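Running this now, will post back.
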Amino acid sequence: MKNIFIIIILTFCSLASSLAQGKYEVFRKEMSLIEKQENEYRKVIWGENDFSQDYKDSVYKKHQVLVKEKVEFAKNTIRENRDDERFLKVLDIYVRNFLSLDEFEAELKMFSFQVQKTEACQRYFEFIKYARINTPGKQCIDFEMKGHDGKTSINLFSSIFGPPGVALVGQQCPPLKRCMKSIMKKASK
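Update: finished.
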């Protein structure tokens, strides 16, 4: 009886594993079809071709709808698979750019506790933490870095610049020197 129970458990575990693998593979296949269509639209919109501007505009509208559908498809798939760490990557690749930091954090917190403990998820939480520190209107953060000579220097941007603006590092760079005047004009506005 004990052996039969163990066999049933092992069978169920392998079945559950293959089912989870299947969900991810199904997502990847369906997403690749959506992306293939998206690439076709991009070729028409931004590629070198002889299409009229009206036609390109109509394809652009279809492209915008497809992008929304792609994001919704990814969101729905993530909601159905909160116990699978692989769907963290789906969140990052397909959804994150359409979310605020608070929304991104809320999405991460909806994953299972087991997934939240993974290194990948912890890196996303760290990203959110530091992204909030470095937002426009807040005091610049101070940091240390090593120069090419191996010496460590402490950059006290908070005392020099106050709220973040444009920090021009490497001002000896000729291309930067050429555009610095226009950057400074825009920054002063």
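Residues 2-46 form the longest helix (45 residues). More later if anyone needs it.
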